[in-house]
Amino acid sequence: MINVTKSYLPDFEEYTAYLKGVWERVHLTNDGPLLRELEAQMKEFLGVKHLKFCSNGTVVLQMALKALDITKEVITTPFSYVATTNALLWEGCTPVFADIRPDDFNIDADKIEPLITEHTQAILATHVYGNACQVEQIHAIAEKYRLKVIYDAAHTFGATYNGRSLLSYGDLSTCSFHATKVFHTVEGGCIVTNDDAMAQKLHFYRSFGHRNDDYYSIGINAKNSEFHAAMGLCVLPKVPELIAARRRVFDYYNNRLDFSRLTRPTLSPGMEYNYAYYPVVFDSEETLLRVVDALKAQEIVPRRYFYPSLNTLPFVPSYQACPVSEDIALRVLSLPLYPDLAESDVDRIAGIVNEAIAVSNVVY
After folding, report:
1. Is 174 helix (H, G, I), strand (E, B) or coil?
2. How confident is the model at residue 362 (pLDDT cuts 50, 70, 90)?
């Protein structure tokens, strides 16, 4: 079976060498030495000032909202993983959906300003598939209206825009290190800031708000363990090699798929991409479903990523029309992409896709 993704696992002996030290120290969690080492290496790799390694990519979104005291309206994207909207609702915020751009599927900065009200406090945007949002325009809008900017950068590890890590933009930026990501720690995430005081606040938020018997603030348990940090220390040095391998698979698809009958999102100028996903857009949902059935018949599992458009979720307080997102969400499919996906398998996948879309375009 070929799944849409496959987690990279490092050499087993390399990982267990780190675990031997954990056994010797009997320091399993609570800001351990491997966690601190991983944070330091990630800061250097990404070129960011402060980074807090946490338990997952959703809790860091919640921490960001809490740390910036966001409790009212937040303008956000309808085209993202559900965690983006869930974090807002969980923290008692009101999501206000701005539609997306039809070329790169990121939030349309031109749609943000008309949605701003006296209750708007922040913009929460996702760098979709690891591709940069309109960060300059979003920053200008935020400055004009004194709004905070949070980037859900879950897909962006190793990706840069104008020579800077995408995690370096915004008031706060978050990332996911789930096992399916370009860089992973099995489960994990991080939150990034350039502000010293904010970094200290986030440090306490991550650990119940206290150090030993001294209590400084509210907090939750967003800590991560030495076992997860050990995985990160094994995977991090391999990231450039993994991105290069993903790019080869990406290029295989580009050379084999029939783009007269499907499209792909465009990359923002200035991007150095990490090849996190390979999404394609079909002419209709009917064609997409035909392709999915054809692939699954050959034990190939793609993913409707992202589907549905988040503004249509049944638990969102009120429906807000986002026609571009709603349309793209019905027609977009992520094809299998991981570093060791064989060229012969890409050939087979592309052949099945091409055949299915050719059938869908036959006029009877």
Report:
1. strand
2. low
Domains of the chain by residue range: 12-98+106-237, 238-360
- Catalytic-labelled residue, pool 52, 66, 181, 223: 181
* Length, in residues, of the chain: 364
Q: Where does 12-98+106-237 sit in CATH, by number?
A: 3.40.640.10
Average pLDDT along the chain: 97
Kindly report the CATH number that applies to the domain delimited by 238-360.
3.90.1150.10
Q: What is the pLDDT of residue 106?
A: 98
Burial 318-357 (b: 16+ CB within 10 A, else e): eeeebebbbbbbbbbbbbbbbbebeeeebebbbebbbebb
Instruction: Give the E-state strand segments of the chain in sequence order.
Output: 50-54, 73-76, 94-97, 120-126, 148-152, 160-161, 164-165, 172-176, 189-193, 210-211, 214-215, 271-272, 279-281, 332-334
The answer to whether residue 66 is catalytic is: no
pLDDT at 363: 46
Task: Round to whole Å and give the CA distance between 310 and 319.
Answer: 10
At how many degrees (to 10) do helices 59-67 and 82-90 cross?
40
CB 236 within 8 A of CB 45: yes
CA pair distance 354, 239, nearest whole angstrom:
31
Give the number of other Cβ atoms within 10 Å of residue 313's Cβ: 15
